[in-house]
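Subject: HTH-type transcriptional regulator BetI structure
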Amino acid sequence: MEPIRRQQLIDATMATIDEAGLADSTIMQISRRAGVSAGIISHYFGGKDGLLEATMRHILTDLGASVARRRDTLSGSDAREHLYAIVEGNFDRSQVSQAVMKTWLAFWTTSMHKPDLQRLQRVNDRRLYSNISYQFRKHLTLDRARTAARGLAALIDGLWLRGALSPEKFDISNAIWLACRYVDEQLDGNDTA
């Protein structure tokens, strides 16, 4: 499928979920918004679940790119700076728009019941945990690094979820500050290297 057409369908999916929610979004609504026939969605994606998976893969690609952009500006391998970049990337503009937040929420709830989506969620969760754990491991024992990584991943998800549930009051700067303070608390005075 043409990349432009694919992007139109992904954008239409997010806009339709934003407007109607996943349960009330239909293939017909999405296809109409994208300006394509409903058959194209079924043909290329196998239906609404496949389209949601493709949309989430796009959002996850944006997330990875936002973290990578921040990490590319770093001068070295300082764990604190890399952890800050991971935190900031998770609260990037690409991850906190209304449409993207509602799509994330729809994905999370649907992934509990759909094996293909559940696998995608597990991969995303493991990637975040692994990246965080690797950075903490530069300064903490293995057990402490793992515990700190679980804590930071939970804090990122929790702050993001609270923001998604009350977007008009979502203070992104404060969420980043809180998560970065957690990083500082874990690293300060705990250097084992």
